[in-house]
Design a protein that fits this description.
This is DUF1850 domain-containing protein. This protein is mainly β. It has strands at about 1-5, 10-20, 20-30, 45, 45-50, 50-55, 55-70, 70-75, 80-85, 90, 100-105. Strand 2 (about 10-20) and strand 3 (about 20-30) form a beta hairpin.
Amino acid sequence: MEHTHSVTKRPVDEVFSVGDGGILMQELRFDEFGANLPAGPQRIGDTTTTFLHENGEFRVLHHGRPLGTVPLRVGGPKVDHVLTLPGGTRVRLLDLAPRGTFVELGVRGAPGAASA
């Protein structure tokens, strides 16, 4: 999922996968620190993230941390969310729901995951 950070106005990419129980967090990429972006490795539950700085980009590897679903508010002020699905299909959330709408991304039929 690509989006523009609400404070830094810089691009942020989040990489998810699908596994048992729903959506898994794989990676977070950004080029400038901002609110709610990590400044180093973090311990989240049983997982410690890997924090890398390569070619002017920060990469945070989450190692398949289970999320189940991803709650978010569609396109806050000057923010757009674009999902790139397997196969390269791109879906702009503002084309599906009005700005400010709360949505929860999930995998329909995944054990332990909410339907979306």
